[in-house]
Amino acid sequence: MTLIATRGLTKRYGASVTALDGLTLDVEPGIIGLVGANGAGKSTLIKILLGLLAPTSGEATVLDLDVRTDGSRIRSLVGYMPEHDCLPPDLSATEFVTHMARMSGLPRAAARERTADVLRHVGLYEERYRPIGGYSTGMKQRVKLAQALVHDPRLLLLDEPTNGLDPAGRDEMLDLVRRTGTEFGIATIVASHLLGEIERVCTFLLAIDAGRLLRAAPLASFTERTGTLIVEVEEGSRELADRLTAAGAAAEVDGRTVLVDLPDERPYDLLRDTVAELGLALVRVEQRRGRLEDLFRDAPEVTDAA
Amino acid sequence: MPPEGGSVGTGAPAASEIYDLGYRGYDGPRLGRAYAAWSLFTASLRAAFGLGRPMRSKLAPWGLGAVALIPAAVSLAISASVGPQFSPFSYDDFIWQMQAIFGLFVAAQAPELVGGDQRHHVLALYFSHALERIDYALAKLGAMIVALVIVMGAPMIVLWVGRILGSTDLAGAIGDELGALPQVLGSPILHAVGVGSVSLAIAAFTPRRAYATGAIIAIFIIGQGVAQAVSRGTTGALRDIGPLINPFVWLDGTRDWLLGRSVPESPVVRSDLSLATYGLVALLFVAAAIGLTIWRYRRIDA
Question: Which chain B residues touch A74 with a CB distance below 8 Å?
Answer without folding.
Answer: none
